[in-house]
Amino acid sequence: MFIAILYFAAAGAAAVGGAGAAGVLYDRGRQHAATSSREQDSRNLARLLQAEISLAQLRREAAEMGVDPDQVEAGYFALRDGSISLDEALTMLRGSR
After folding, report:
1. To pair with 8 at 20 to 30 A between CA atoms, which of 28, 29, 42, 69?
2. SS3 category, 70
3. Residue 80 to residue 65: CA distance in whole angstroms
4. Per the record's keyword annotation, is Transferase included, yes or no (predicted)?
5. Tell me, what's the pLDDT at 64?
6. Which residues, 6 or more positions from 25, have their beta carbon under 8 angstroms from its beta carbon?
């Protein structure tokens, strides 16, 4: 993203000297910003998919141990969001057995 900012700054400086050069540099800055945004979106999607895979595995393991997978999932999200502590989650799960 830092490179895109440099392209925009160069486009501003070139605007004083030549509109054609400023237009090319401005377009290049927009292209680089779009590429950076796509790369960040790809990384975020990969993290999300990995979390979903882990959640599916967690549900499977809970079912194998005789614990309600829906309650495990709810505890997972509550822990992740910080709305309950680990001890509270354990107490909740012990009550579901």
Report:
1. 42
2. helix
3. 22
4. yes
5. 92
6. 7, 8, 10, 11, 14
CA distance 40 to 42: 5
**Entry pTM:** 0.43
- Buried b or exposed e, range 44-59, using 16+ CB within 10 angstroms: eeeeeeeeeeebeeeb
| Angle, CA of 89, 91 and 95, to the nearest 5° | 115
Query: What is the distance between the alpha carbons of residues 73 and 70, in angstroms, rounded to a whole number?
Result: 5
Cβ contacts of residue 56 below 8 Å, gap of 6+? none
- Residue segments in the chain with a per-residue pLDDT below the cut of 50: none
Burial class for 70, CB neighbours closer than 10 Å (0-12, 13-18, 19+): exposed
Longest Cα–Cα distance of the chain, Å, equals 75
Single-letter code of the amino acid located at 61 = E
